[in-house]
């Protein structure tokens, strides 16, 4: 009997030691998630406070689902769309505050800056809001995941659809920084590949409020389509001013990166008939509706694809940490890449070697006012663009991690 007791105690002690060893791989027994986003500027509607809320929802759902032995904490900050502020905050988080993962990072310039810090400090960067393809091409690294969408996917949807429907001459109104330039470049390639012509482009400061001179140049080009290679408040201001100057409907606008928050702000009367490409729509199916209604209860607006992608990316990260019992960046990245993503945001999503998360995208058309049956009923889904078609194939990758 005594021997049995000793054996039982020894087994218990061994189990406790193993558990302790596993937990010890979570630094400080706490996983810390940093949300670095635009809380006050051009992109605050499409990311901002909604991205912070989505992160907290992911943490809460993970804690209820996994009941982990470790704690999960969140910190957030406003990077003001400035690369130096973003990189300084990321370094402070990683060095002094024990942040394991920097997330969201809307605005390409801030994303590229934080990617370098994350690589240097061996932390993970999860990007939902940035769009530029250099993130997974020339600037790629092995600790970054580009999760929600990119300029290649946007061009592949909107520019292709509009060109094929007869919008075969284009003039671009472009935000003058890495994102706008990448979106113009990728869209121009799609227009040309589908038999269209690019008549020119003009670049505006980021952010901007007065688009009059830029729109008049676009008007003078005679192009059928004015491609808006910008986002957020820049896009909505350009659309409003194009209507005020009588440019539309004589020339059509193509919002190359538009969000449901933009449509809501402008109204269906001003946006009806526009095509746009999105990685998420709240009213797509029962799963998207269920999550979005939870989000709406706290935010009083439906989520954008950036906010929905933010939730999914953070939850996927936390599940990977739980699965391997470690917050070691290399191990977590390996787990994330080998595990398919199946939730309301993506079905059979996969993170590739270059850090690109590939999933289906959606070409949608904004409804006419009389077609909308209930609040936020804004889109006709015209086409599901399969993941393999939506994103740049690895065979075309310029990422140094990929050996073609």
Distance between the termini: 65 Å
Q: What name is given to the CATH topology of the largest domain?
A: Rossmann fold
- Helix run count: 14
Structural class: alpha/beta
The CATH superfamily title of the largest domain: Response regulator
Order of helices and strands: HEHEHEHEEHEHEHEHEHHEHHHEEEEH
* General form: globular
Task: Describe this entry's structure for a reader.
There is one protein chain. The protein is an alpha/beta fold and 404 residues long. The chain has two domains: 30-149 and 284-360, 3-Layer(aba) Sandwich (Rossmann fold); 152-278, Response regulator (Rossmann fold, 3-Layer(aba) Sandwich), CATH 3.40.50.2300. It is 45% helix and 18% strand. The protein contains 14 helices and 14 strands. The protein has a five-stranded parallel sheet, with helices on both faces. A four-stranded parallel sheet has the order 7-6-8-9, sandwiched between helices. A three-stranded antiparallel sheet has the order 10-13-14. Helix 4 (108-121) links the parallel strand 3 (101-104) and strand 4 (124-127). Helix 3 (83-96) runs parallel beside helix 4. The chain starts with a helix and ends in a 14-residue tail after the last helix.
Characterize this entry briefly.
With 404 residues, the protein is an alpha/beta fold. The protein has helices at residues 2-24, 48-66, 83-96, 108-121, 151-164, 178-193, 212-221, 233-244, 260-266, 268-271, 286-299, 305-324, 329-338, 387-390; strands at residues 30-37, 71-78, 101-104, 124-127, 144-146, 169-175, 197-204, 225-229, 252-255, 275-278, 350-351, 357-358, 361-366, 379-385. It has 14 helices and 14 strands.
């Amino acid at each position: 009997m005594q021997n049995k007791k000793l054996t039982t105690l020894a087994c218990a002690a061994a189990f406790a030691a193993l558990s302790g060893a596993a937990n010890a791989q979570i630094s400080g027994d706490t996983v810390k998630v940093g949300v670095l986003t635009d809380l006050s500027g051009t992109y605050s509607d499409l990311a901002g406070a909604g991205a912070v809320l989505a992160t907290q929802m992911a943490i809460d759902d993970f804690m209820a689902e996994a009941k982990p032995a470790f704690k999960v904490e969140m910190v957030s900050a406003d990077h003001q769309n400035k690369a130096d502020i973003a990189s300084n905050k990321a370094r402070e988080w990683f060095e002094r505050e024990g942040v394991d993962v920097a997330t969201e990072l809307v605005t390409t310039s801030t994303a590229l800056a934080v990617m370098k810090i994350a690589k240097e400090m061996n932390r993970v960067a999860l990007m939902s809001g940035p769009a530029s393809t250099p993130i997974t091409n020339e600037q790629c690294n092995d600790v970054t995941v580009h999760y929600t969408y990119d300029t290649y996917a946007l061009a592949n949807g909107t520019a292709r659809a509009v060109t094929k429907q007869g919008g075969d001459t284009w003039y671009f109104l472009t935000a003058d920084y890495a994102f706008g330039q990448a979106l113009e470049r990728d869209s121009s390639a799609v227009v040309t590949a589908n038999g269209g012509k690019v008549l020119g482009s003009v670049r505006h400061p980021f952010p901007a409020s007065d688009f009059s001179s830029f729109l008049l140049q676009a008007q003078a080009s005679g192009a059928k389509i004015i491609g808006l290679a910008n986002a957020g408040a820049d896009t909505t201001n350009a659309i409003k001013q194009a209507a005020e100057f009588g440019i539309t409907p004589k020339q059509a606008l193509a919002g190359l990166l538009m969000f449901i928050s933009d449509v809501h702000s402008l109204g269906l009367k001003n946006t009806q008939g526009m095509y746009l490409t999105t990685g998420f729509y709240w009213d797509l199916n029962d799963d998207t509706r269920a999550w979005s209604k939870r989000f709406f209860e706290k935010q009083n607006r439906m989520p954008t694809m950036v906010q929905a992608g933010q939730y999914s990316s953070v939850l996927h990260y936390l599940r990977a940490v739980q699965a391997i019992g470690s917050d070691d960046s290399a191990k977590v990245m390996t787990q994330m890449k080998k595990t398919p993503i199946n939730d309301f945001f993506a079905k059979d999503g996969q993170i590739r070697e270059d850090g690109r998360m590939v999933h289906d995208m959606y070409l949608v058309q904004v409804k006419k006012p009389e077609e909308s049956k209930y609040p936020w009923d804004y889109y006709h889904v015209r086409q599901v663009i399969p993941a393999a078609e939506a994103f740049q194939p690895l065979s075309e990758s310029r990422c140094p991690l990929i050996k073609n």
